[in-house]
Amino acid sequence: MKKYKKILLFTSMLMLVFVLTGCGTGEITADSTGIWDRYIVYYFGQAIKFLSFGGNAGVGIILFTLIVRVLLMPLMHYQTKSMRKTQDLQPKLKALQETYSSKDPETARKLQEEQQRLYSEAGVNPMSGCLPLLVQLPIMMAVWQSISRMPELTNGNFLWLELGKADPFYILPILAAIFTFISTKLTSMSQADSPGAMKIMNYMMPIMILVMGVKLASGLSLYWVISNAFQVVQTLLINNPFKIKQEREAEEQKKRDIEKALRKANMSKKKKK
Q1: Other Cβ atoms within 10 Å of 202 Cβ, number
Q2: What is the spatial distance between Cα 87 and Cα 241, in angstroms, rounded to a whole number?
Q3: Residue 141 and residue 127 in contact, taking contact as beta carbons nearer than 8 Å
Q4: Is 102 within 8 Å of 46 (Cβ atoms)?
Q5: Three-state SS across 143-211?
Q6: Where in the sequence does UniProt note compositional bias of the Basic and acidic residues kind (predicted)?
Q7: Alpha-carbon gap, residue 268 to 262, rounded angstroms
């Protein structure tokens, strides 16, 4: 299952790069056709324009991003709970892997069945970690398309930026990469045993964000900066890895104290005999 998750994650990111670099460049208006252009990109752009107080499209992008992140909070909370449950299952999953350590097809099938049973009993979906990413992908693409293909946004300015063009000083791409790294790092810190794929993504995602931010419209980089900064704050408030680490250490200490007390009790019984 972990292999499928890794494949899905990497495929999604590659698909994002492909779509962002290969989508149409025609102007988006109320007369545009197609579900994507007419009903998604157009209305995303309209929402950003509506939120652009004082005619400042940068403000519109910031407010739109914050609204999207607030709407996604229940989904992120669900992901957090699922990740915590998955972490609690790790000892049992490792025990299953040791029991079914043979590489023959029949044993591998039994291992997968037992893992699925364990996930089902615990109410855990191992693919839930990919869900927020898959939901955010079309949102990112629609934001980029609306900025790049709607004249009111393409020609918009914010601080030193021309929103339809790349950041000439690379400030936003660098900030977006930094916040992406902090966000993924905090997420991995909350896991007792971070999988290899998570450790790789700690570095791959910021690099990909940086490369795309340097080449694509600065409005998208602005979206990434606000979105990932929001994610960092949300993680510290809802799934604080430092607090989780303290809780785990306290739980481990409690287990050690109980084991120590049991050993003392057994030694006392032996002495009495």
Answers
A1: 19
A2: 13
A3: no
A4: no
A5: HHHHHHHCHHHHCCEECCEECCCCCCCCHHHHHHHHHHHHHHHHHHHCCCCCCHHHHHHHHHHHHHHHH
A6: 247-262
A7: 10
The answer to whether 62 and 222 are in contact (CB under 8 A) is: yes
Look up residue 165 and give its two tokens: 């063009």
Kindly state the tokens that stand for 151: 């004249």
223: helix, coil or strand? helix
Residue-wise DSSP of 97-120: HHHT---SHHHHHHHHHHHHHHHH
Are 221 and 213 spatial neighbours (Cβ–Cβ below 8 Å)?
yes
pLDDT per position in the chain (273 positions), as tens? 444 454 455 555 555 555 554 555 677 877 777 788 888 888 898 999 899 888 888 899 999 999 988 888 887 777 777 777 777 777 777 777 777 776 777 777 777 777 787 777 777 766 666 666 677 778 878 888 888 888 888 888 888 888 888 889 999 999 999 998 988 888 777 665 555 556 677 778 888 889 888 888 888 889 899 999 998 888 888 777 777 777 767 777 777 777 777 777 777 666 665
Give the CA distances from residue 115 to residues 3, 69, 83, 112, 195, in Å, rounded to whole numbers and listed in that order: 14, 33, 16, 5, 16
CA angle 267, 268, 273 (to 5 degrees): 95
List the alpha helices (DSSP H) in 40-149: 42-50, 57-99, 105-122, 131-149
Domain definitions of the chain by residue range: 2-239
| Paired tokens of 56 | 């400042």
